[in-house]
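Work Package 3 (structural annotation) set out to generate three-dimensional models for the target panel prioritized at the project kickoff. During this period the team completed the workflow that converts sequence records into discrete structure tokens, so that structures can be stored uniformly alongside our sequence database. As a representative example, we reproduce one entry of 271 residues exactly as it appears in the project archive.
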Amino acid sequence: MGKAADSIGPVPDALFHREGDLFVPTEAARSPWTEQALHAGPPGALIARALEALEGDRWWVVRLTIDIMGEIPVVPLRVETAMERSGRRVQLVEAKVIGPGGDALMRAFAWRVRRTGPLPLPPPVDTPPPMPPLPDTLPPYDISFRHYEDFFGSGVEKRLVAGSVERPGRATLWFRLRVPVVPGEVPTPFQTLMAVVDSANGISWALPFEEWLFPNTDLGVYLAREPEGEWIALDAVTYLDPLGRGISDTALFDTKGFVGRANQALFLDQR
């Protein structure tokens, strides 16, 4: 990934500003890989926000997959949703992040189930992954790798549990948004999760960025329960194939415990 950069200027007041039905990205939404692109997390938070606005108080998202159609430029974005399958118990919703030319930059499908319960379930048979130390027991992990404002360096607070983003291997970090997704709105836990989860590939890198390309083409999130609170932890590991592919595999936590899992498919090549 490189070495930590010096402290950068004041953080913008949100990840996006509203202009009608458009979301204009601020510096805090930029990618740490290139100044000309957005980090995929902030547009992912826009997708979460749009899903919640679509009768979100009646439905839980249990699976959300996002296909990243290419590098996401720093341009005003529009989000569209459509009901692909309606039902009394389950439904499938499509969401798209649209660029100025009308092309879909991200395409997402969310399976949602009707909110019910509490149901009289028996005690769990299998135990979830172990809970990492809570963020308020850990010191701030203030690290940035770029000379410009970007999402990883400026848009989130971080607490390191294990590993290090400065060396290869498994890493576990807590994340909290420093700013709202849009001004005047408190980010929901689901928005926070979708904003930070794309960072899994970056924190658990296995090859030096200066010599290798390993972008993720997609993101798949499965939620065992609804996330709660401001903090989300990623326990991320990367597996690579010498034939040019790989995956990241991530356990997700909030301060109450295990929330679900996320995966990313990786394209691998030398620079």
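The first helix runs from residue 41 to 53.
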